Amino acid sequence: MLDQKEPNYILKPYAAKFKALSDEKRLQIMYELCQRGKTCVCDLQDVLDLPQSSLSYHLKILVEAGLITRETQGTWSYYELNSSEVNALLSEQLCCIFRPNACC
After folding, report:
1. PROSITE patterns, from UniProt (predicted)?
2. Would you call 40 helix, strand, or coil by DSSP?
């Protein structure tokens, strides 16, 4: 049985991830990164037709949630889907929190 403090510790990272996923533009960003692999921010801006400030805002949320990674090369930033984090959300890992009897 979990103690009273442990659920908040376990659930807090998931709350940030699901909050990041709750926006259609952020889902579009993740989709583009899934299709393209590591992508320059300038290319994302062209494809998504977003102003730089809006794109930066959405990218920051996704990076902070751990759903994408950022690599800076010179003056350019490149973003990539964090496959291990995305896979964890789609796997039994989260399921085990809500359905402990169904876990392996």
Report:
1. HTH_ARSR_2
2. strand
Query: Which residues lie closer than 8 Å to 80 by C-beta, 6 or more apart?
Result: 33, 37, 38, 39, 68, 69, 71
Domain positions in the chain are 21-102
Neighbour count for residue 28 (Cβ, 10 Å): 15
pLDDT band of residue 75 (cuts 50, 70, 90) is very high
Q: Based on the number of CB atoms within 10 Å of its own CB, is 2 exposed (0-12), middle (13-18) or buried (19 or more)?
A: exposed
- Pull the structure tokens for residue 103: 């876990």
Predicted confidence (pLDDT) per residue in 16-25, tens digit = 999 999 999 9
Q: Top-level CATH class of 21-102?
A: mainly alpha
> Between the CA atoms of 38, 43, 49 and 51, what dihedral angle is there, to the nearest 10 degrees?
100
Q: What is the mean pLDDT of residues 26-49?
A: 92
